[in-house]
Fold hydroxymethylglutaryl-CoA lyase.
Amino acid sequence: TLPARVRIVEVSPRDGLQNESTILPVETKVALIELLAKAGVRDIEAGSFVSAKRAPQMAATAEVLAKLDQKLLSRSSVRLSVLIPNLQGLDCALASGVKDVAVFAAASETFSQKNINCSIAESLARFAPAVEKALSAGIRVRGYISCVLGCPYEGEIAPGEVASLARDLTAMGCHEISLGDTIGAGTPLRAKRLIEAVARDGPIDRLAVHFHDTYGQALANIFACLELGISVVDASVAGLGGCPYAPGATGNVATEDVVYMLDGMGVETGIDLAALAEAGEFISGRLGRRSGSRASRAIAAQ
Ligand code: HMG
Ligand code: MG
């Protein structure tokens, strides 16, 4: 059985743009987030507070947050979040006024080193004080795990490794764990086995799935996970996305395609597909390329 309702976590302003080499103006990012809010997207990852050398596109995150139309966001009940790797990132997040942050670990040692320049254990030690400070300030913390279905450097990753890391992040205080198929290597039965392994340790509604679509498996993987009771899905309009430290990986699953699939199955998202597709067309235009969403292209061709 499928969930009656799915919460979409829109990651285009962060995952979608972090890998884009052309730095977009702050106004464009603000317009994207506001279009998403108008389309009914409630959870939006607006940017990240990481080293500007590592992700130059994210360097203006504080300016983006400061310029957003707060009235529109509160009227639309939007929750904004930002990605943070350490206490320094959390302090920027606190200063910006967001109520949600996300820390990001990896299930692969090599990926952890390439992405955040430390081991998995060191990353947990860095997150702990940031998570503690966030929670005491009333900020919710999400925990990402990358490479859950494969690593660009180490290949296969055992589901047990992912489950163990999910336990650590949950014990630290993360209210939700987003399982990231960073390189889009997963297929539906492996995705299911992974969810089953991680769900043994606690309620399934604290788990989210985050599929990149490198091999065209993302929608099939999402459907497989929904069948197990997953009801939080990360996605990015126009299928934008990628991680600078996952060479060859393409974008996230396109939000328009996910919403089209869920609409067709009677699963509620609260999102208006036509308005969402406009947001995707807007950002694709600003990046000078065709939308990576098949649903959006179909809508545009009608
Ligand atoms: P480090 O390389 O170990 O070095 O940084 P450091 O700690 O000595 O810091 C280097 C510089 O960064 C210093 O500045 C720090 O002040 C600064 P400098 O003295 O050279 O001028 N710095 C910061 N600046 C702003 N905000 C901060 C911050 N912390 C330090 N919070 C660090 C470690 C983690 C900071 C670095 O490696 C980094 O920023 N990495 C970026 C990683 C990243 O953004 N990756 C993409 C997101 S993860 C992802 O896409 C996967 C996901 O989508 C799920 C999936 O698909 O699997 C979430
Ligand atoms: Mg990602």
